[in-house]
Amino acid sequence: MSNKVEILFFARLKNKNKKNLAPIYARIIANSQRVEFSTGLSIDPKHWNGNTAKVVAGNANAQLINTYISTKKIEFKRIYNDLLLEQKEITAEIMKNRLLGIQETEASRTFLELMDFHISIFKSKIGTDTAISTYRKYMVTKKRLEEFIPYHYKKKDINLLDLKLEFIASFDLYLKTVCKNNHNTVVKHCKNVKAIINHGIQYEWLETNPFIKYKTPYKEGDKGILTKEELATLMAKEFKIPRLAVVRDLFVFQCYTGLAYTDMKELTQADIQIGIDGNRWIIKRRTKTNQRSPIPLLPQAIEILEKYNWLEKLGNTPILPVMTNQKMNAYLVEIVELCGISKKITTHVGRRTFATTITLSNGVPIESVSAMLGHTNLKTTQIYAKVVDTKICQDMQQLKEKLSGGNLKKVVNGDS
């Protein structure tokens, strides 16, 4: 037997029980991998010979424990030879499973097999409680994993029981160095991997998540938004090219409603309802999260709806002339250039502009903004809707006025 594959027995002296007995563990080493498991036996430390890995004579359980150890060593050699004859992969986990009598079907499930199972369930829920965009994101993660596993492990797939924290750490590094992904893209892929493993635990494919200690938070980037002045410039600009005028209107509609591209594209007459104040609201569920999103319509948004004759669009007919997201983003590049705005914007910037420039900067509480955006929690809104510098400037200016007016004592004491 190769010296790279062996089984060792040892007493874990630091884990003595109330009777001062130490548990006896087995350690399997195979091709630089190792696993440990409890034998279920224990021994008084003074009766254990660490050099021979046996119980010394004179202990009442010496014959029982020593026979168990000898039997397992013989069985271990037989399992190793069987795997060689079967030309199967030899890993510490597989050796352990055979030694403990764990069914081959349980031990042979693979990571990509679990991922396919996870994705198939997602696919079946599209249109109910899963967005097709989420399904597509998992498909991209799968593609990256199908490239990573052969690259790093020199094989097409990996057994679920062989997964360790090293797997996701190496995947993280692979995405950054080989795929040249930015930090937040890497985090998204790794979060998908953790979700897949949790799904496997739910369906009892494995017992614990080996990636539970992997924690890499998103980095808060400088989210692109338009200032009040930039938005006014864009709205006032006259475009001779019809397609640019249409895209400008659609983008402005996003700035005054906070709708994501997909939700704007799917907007129908049925989504425009009379709210509790007697005025028109957009009330619809977000495609991405299925979260209810109630948005009172501002005059600027109503003006755009009327410009495109929304009342004439009946049934499931979209009420706005929304083209593909790719085309809109391409035309937005032309639009900002013609407006003299030196920013790169996409349709998503319209949603961010609503969250910051239109609402938060004008004193709308973050709870209300979160509800209109259709977020499931405030934490998302806090990252998404970064308060713009002009709002900070206004707040500090008010503080300066209070301080210069002799109200320092009141401010310090918390009086208004």
TrEMBL record:
Q: What is this protein called?
A: Site-specific integrase
Keyword field contains DNA-binding: yes
Q: Which residues form the Tyr recombinase domain?
A: 221-404
Q: Which domain of life is it from?
A: Bacteria
Q: Which GO terms describe its molecular function?
A: DNA binding
Give the signal peptide range: none
Swiss-Prot/TrEMBL GO biological process terms: DNA integration; DNA recombination
